[in-house]
Design a protein that fits this description.
Elements: H1 2-21, E1 30-35, H2 41-50, H3 57-66, E2 76-81, H4 86-93, E3 101-104, H5 111-121, E4 140-143, H6 149-169, H7 180-193, H8 197-212, H9 220-228, H10 267-274, E5 283-286, E6 293-296, H11 299-312
Antiparallel strand pairs: 1-2, 3-4, 5-6
Helix pairs in contact: 2-3, 6-10, 7-8, 7-10, 8-10
Length: 313
């Protein structure tokens, strides 16, 4: 009788043990779990239970302690599929297989737009616009939910440095630029002039041709930046009087490059500046169609292009 009772108790114990620690249902609903830095085991088990991911807080706490996993649980965002077993959940939380979020620093964005995003992902940040580097590459980046704004910015900076140094090393050595900073500045102007990949090299070539003969770059986006400083959109077309706006960024009144970038360029614009299209073009004007441009070798031809565009309206 005692043996039978012991056997029954053993069976019950095994079933309960399996139910609490290893059983999982067949639901495939994905639940996101965020383990904040400083969270204690009981806080984690309470959250998992409230999200209906485990059957018992006590069992979760016990499993973690019996297996010495307290210090191995990682802080971050994780995905749990279905109502899972304690064994699998513990394995996930100690694996470091985080959910990586993505954000895109869009080509042509300004510092003020980037600082707004950094403030959204980390409201406690003390970063200011003056802390944001000029030389960043517009691209899609990954981060984890527990990353600080400073950490995200550091990752952007390191990636941009690595890629831009490689582009600079592979540049056409004949381009009249002294360093990576100047490459970024001209690339930011090219970025604002066109979004068409096939035209970026041609427009970069136009600016280099102007620089070689001592001609001002005369780029409209530098005028707009002179007025707004990237804090907002101009909201209107440039006027003739705007071209005389007094600013070190205005390439209609100053020769050479502005003192820093006017936006964040994409990799394609940096490559276009590093290896520009070789031509005699000195002018370009928008066709007012799909962002494309006409290119001209003389001012007379340029004026004819402008006239044909106006007559086509």
């Amino acid at each position: 009788m005692v043996k039978n009772l012991s056997f029954l108790l053993l069976i019950v114990f095994c079933n309960v043990f399996h139910y609490l620690f290893f059983s999982q249902n067949k639901e495939f609903k994905t639940t996101t779990v965020i383990i904040e830095q400083g969270m204690k085991i009981n806080e984690i088990s309470e959250m998992l239970y409230k999200k209906k991911l485990i059957n018992s807080e006590f069992a979760f706490d016990l499993w973690i302690k019996l297996n010495f996993l307290e210090k191995k649980i990682r802080f971050g965002e994780f995905e749990i599929i279905g109502k899972n077993s304690i064994y699998n959940i513990a394995k996930t939380l100690t694996s470091g297989k985080f959910v990586y979020r993505k954000f895109t620093l869009v080509e042509g964005m300004y510092k003020y737009q980037l600082i707004e995003f950094l403030n959204k992902i980390d409201p406690s940040t003390s970063l200011k616009v003056t802390d944001i580097p000029d030389n960043l590459i517009a691209d899609t980046y990954s981060y984890v939910v527990t990353d600080s704004a400073e950490r995200v910015l550091e990752n952007l900076t390191n990636f941009s440095k690595k890629i831009s140094e490689r582009i600079w090393e592979e540049r056409d050595k004949n381009i009249p630029l002294q360093n990576i900073e100047e490459m970024y500045i001209l690339a930011s102007i090219v970025e604002k002039e066109t979004a068409i990949k096939s035209e970026k090299g041609k427009i970069a070539g136009v600016f280099f041709n102007r620089m070689k003969i001592g001609m001002r770059l005369q780029s409209d986006p530098t005028v707009e930046f002179s007025i707004t400083r990237g804090k907002k959109k101009l909201g209107r077309k440039l006027l003739r009087k705007d071209l005389k706006f007094s600013s070190e960024y205005n390439t209609y009144v100053n020769k050479g490059l502005p003192p820093s970038t006017i936006c964040y360029p994409g990799k394609e614009s940096l490559i276009a500046v590093s290896r520009p299209y070789n031509s005699n073009f000195l002018y370009f004007v928008s066709k007012n169609k799909n962002g494309q441009h006409y290119f001209s070798t003389s001012y007379k031809q340029h004026l004819e292009r402008i006239k044909s565009i106006k007559n086509a309206k």
